[in-house]
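Final report, section 2: Outcomes. Of the targets proposed, Diguanylate cyclase is the one most frequently requested by collaborating groups, and we therefore present its record in full.
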Amino acid sequence: MSHPAAAETILLYFVLPVWLVAGFADYLCHRASRIEVTSGYKESLLHLLMLAEIGIPLLAAMFFEINALIIATMIVCFVLHQLTALWDTTFASHRRSITPIEQHVHSFLELMPLTAMLIVIALNWPQFLSLWGLGPEAARFDLVLKRNPLPWQFVAGFLAASVLFEALPFLEEFVRGLRWRKRA
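The predicted structure is given below as tokens.
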């Protein structure tokens, strides 16, 4: 297996699954802390925002050729995600206990997107350099479907797992917070 193939395999079959597990673990931590009673739907909105901030570049990287546009989107969304995560933790820390386990889960939720982005950048180094006006290639800012798409089994499995273990749980958390607010 070549180094690029090994890096892509690590990204697809280690980094992304660990990231999904950490996201679901975070949901379970929120559920255990009774987030609907403490910080409520407002914190859940921040979680949905972070899901979107990560989902956009992730979907772009899965379906489109990686170029300067996709890399720039990843960088911007990563920075926004980090800022939102800081906002989220600051907001939540005044309203509920954030356990050491949840804090440890958060470290994975911050490092896995960074790891994924760095692997993508390493695999597409000339386009990364082109963002800064460096390297041999001109920066490309077009959306082009992947010439060699990811295996459909991986894409289908990952998208299904993302819906089941990320989108639906965090939507449920948000609805639970709204219901509690109406009762209170």
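The first helix runs from residue 3 to 32.
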